Amino acid sequence: MTATLLVVASVFVLWSLIDRWLLRSWITAPVFFALAGAVALLVTPAYGLTDDLNTEIAEKAAEYVLSLVLFVDALEVRDGLLGRRSRPATRLLLIGLPLTILAGVVVGVGLFPDLQLAAVLVIVCAVSPTDMAPATDMMRDERVPHRLRGILNLESGYNDGIVAPIFAFGMAWIATGGSEESAGAALGDAIPASVKAVLGGIVIGVLAGYLLRGADARGLTTDRAERIGIVAVPILAYTATVLIHGNGFVAAFVCGIAFRLARGPDATHHRAQLLEDVATTAGNFLWFVLGGVAVVVGFALLEWRSVLFALLMLTVVRVVPVLIALWRTDVTLPERVLAGLLGPRGIATIVFGLLAFNGMSGEEASVALQLTVATVVLSLLLHGPGSLLAALLFDRYRRRRRPGIPEQEPATE
């Protein structure tokens, strides 16, 4: 453990020294930490990494990291509940995401017929949410229309929170045996857990938001104290909900929405910097772990079906539902294709994959780990800095964009 902490701390110090240079080189933090994790595993005798991940401590740590990420995602939305581009984003979340999960299950069952349907559902839920952090250089590219960036950022902020209850249902289904007969029992557990989570998240988020706003208005607190208090809010929401047998992930996500609306989006954004830094630090550590696991999986476990599954999830299974969801909207066809291919996977997939790995056993756990690693690593290659996809995609989009379509987001919907 001491050696591991030494390596991790050294990597973080190195990153802090060269981060500005990395940004100029278009090397994102996820890419840097994943590469560092891979190198660390290759040069140190740490091939028991997968055993270390399959522990209760690792599972709990991952759960709290995801609760922080979900809360931060909910805070980042501006201009009301769904922002300015509410209609396209809502269609992506309520039409595109369910279709992606459904298509992913069909692909998963076809490629891995020996897996239980419950296990396939859990794995697909793990690899479906998008995360724009690994593709920040692509999102900064001027060839990506401003309004499309808003839609994609909003989608990535909400989709992991929407997937969380489905993922929890799948895990409960596995725990009850994974048979068709046990699906009803799992659903009977998942629905009350989700209801408790929504109610608990609303209550804690509203109370925390109003109390902090009142304390600030009366001069009872300081900016530093409020920043620390905001870090504790998602942990409080997650822990309190788990204690009453609710879904902690859903609670953290809903709590973030309620807190933002109660505290006020401008004040929340100003005072949530510490929370964002904590979430970023935890997320970077997970990217480091992913890099190490990728080496283990690549050398010992990975097979062609896993690579094919990951490729399909990042392309066809993502693009077709997006095209359907955005049909008959003001989003042009080139923009729809661009939105479909701009679907990187990140922290939510890593955490969900780790939880699936811990919650399964035998071959199912191995496949869950393979598919998680294959999807995220392939996503880094497709959406990361200097990717061929970026060059080809943007050039083709620029040639096909209809003249007269504004690239800046309008002031009103």
From TrEMBL:
User: A Gene Ontology CC term for this entry?
Assistant: plasma membrane
| Gene Ontology terms, MF aspect | antiporter activity
What membrane topology is given? Multi-pass membrane protein
UniProt-listed InterPro entries: Cation/H_exchanger_TM
Q: What are the UniProt keywords, alphabetically?
A: Antiport, Ion transport, Membrane, Transmembrane, Transmembrane helix, Transport
Superkingdom of source = Bacteria
Q: Give an example GO biological process.
A: proton transmembrane transport
Bilayer-spanning residue ranges:
6-23, 30-49, 89-111, 117-136, 157-175, 195-212, 224-240, 246-263, 284-302, 308-326, 338-357, 369-394
* Annotated Cation/H+ exchanger transmembrane domain residues: 27-384
The record's subcellular location field reads: Cell membrane
Q: Does the keyword Transmembrane helix apply?
A: yes
Presence of the UniProt keyword Transport in the record: yes
Give the matching PANTHER family.
CNH1P, NA(+)/H(+) ANTIPORTER 1
Official protein name in the record: Sodium:proton exchanger
What species was this sequence derived from? Flexivirga aerilata
